[in-house]
Design brief:
Structural class: alpha+beta
Number of helices: 5
Shape: elongated
Strand content: 15-25%
Order of helices and strands: EEEHHEHHEEH
Length: about 130
């Protein structure tokens, strides 16, 4: 069953697919394959991959959104679009400290993605 939300997903909704219909966001549970595909799709864009790597280098504290924009040299609206994709996939989180917005990498999400991709490594190696 779809659950309606008016705002962008937060960390509590990670692991659910997001559909936007007329500005309303709907979330439904995702299985491991869908979640991995969504995260890989988000990282499949060169700009989003660059953003993610910048945030990984920044550590747990993350980076102010203005610093990310300066480092990439892209428009604020373009950056917001890319950050939204990374946030919906669960790879980053956003927070506000006073008037400054920060983004940071969700390391557990990437660890989970890598574990999913490698969990069956070599299980069929002895066959054949």
């Amino acid at each position: 069953m779809l659950q309606m939300q008016r705002s962008l997903p937060d960390v509590a909704r990670v692991g659910k697919s997001c559909v936007s219909i007329l500005g309303e966001y709907y979330f439904q549970p995702m299985n491991a394959l869908e979640q991995a595909a969504a995260r890989l799709e988000a990282l499949g864009n060169p700009t989003r991959l660059t953003i993610y790597r910048l945030l990984v280098r920044a550590g747990e504290k993350g980076q102010p959104v203005g610093h990310i924009q300066s480092a990439l040299g892209i428009a604020a609206s373009t950056l917001s679009h890319h950050l939204k994709h990374l946030e919906i996939s669960g790879l980053i989180r956003r927070r506000k400290d006073g008037v400054t917005h920060f983004c940071s990498a969700e390391y557990a999400a990437m660890d989970g993605l890598i574990a999913y991709l490698t969990e069956e490594c070599c299980v069929d190696a002895d066959e054949g």
